[in-house]
Amino acid sequence: MVNKTEKIPGKPLCVAGFRIFRGALVPRAQSRVLGDILQVIEQAPLFSPMTPYGRKMSVRMTSAGRLGWYSDRSGYRYVDRHPSGTSWPSIPDSVLEIWQVFLPDAPQPESCLVNYYGEGARMGLHQDRDEGDFSFPVLSVSLGDDALFRMGGTARRGKTSSIWLKSGDVVVIGGAARLAYHGIDRIRSGSSSLVPGGGRVNLTLRVVR
Ligand SMILES: O=C(O)CCC(=O)C(=O)O
Ligand SMILES: [Mn+2]
Fold first, then answer.
1. For ligand 1, atom 7, which residue shows the shortest CA distance?
2. Atom of ligand 1 nearest to the CA of 117
3. Residue 93 sits in which domain range?
4. What one-character DSSP code corresponds to residue 177?
5. pTM attached to this predicted model
6. Which of 91, 111, 137, 197 has the least CB density, counted as fewest CB within 10 Å?
């Protein structure tokens, strides 16, 4: 249930090769997707991963799909089970529909990372490079509180630009930007009432292989 005007995705805002589709999900679609993701979280509760450097991440996360992104002292990787030992729940149809609209020619994503940002949570500048295949874009969906998204190039210390992502925005990170650095500097706590109890939920869909 993507915005009708975006059924054939309109012209995106392009920043550093990142394609940003403002308001791609209308409020009703945002509620539907969030409801489905809250069910995922019930089956596979959010946890706080440890970085390979031994620091607890401020973002809490879980996954849906065949593979989930995971991190601990052994490094960043994809695993086929939640830390509790159960398989990850399936990616909800409402989420796959978004992928289908924006990336009809790509294979189905094998992973939907669910990031939860409470007050003060952030995600440092990084590349998405734990997948075995970088031929396909990464698609990200923002739900809930506004987030300041920083985008750079493929060099660690290159120039960056930032944009506030809002609930319902979709970002497609492909082509020259597939391995570009990006991160979330901060969220604007209380800027949306979509997520019960507040905060921001980000979905990151990826083909992993
Ligand atoms: O929260 C976001 O918008 C970005 C998340 C992200 O970059 C990631 O999980 O790799
Ligand atoms: Mn990322």
1. 183
2. 1
3. 4-206
4. G
5. 0.97
6. 197
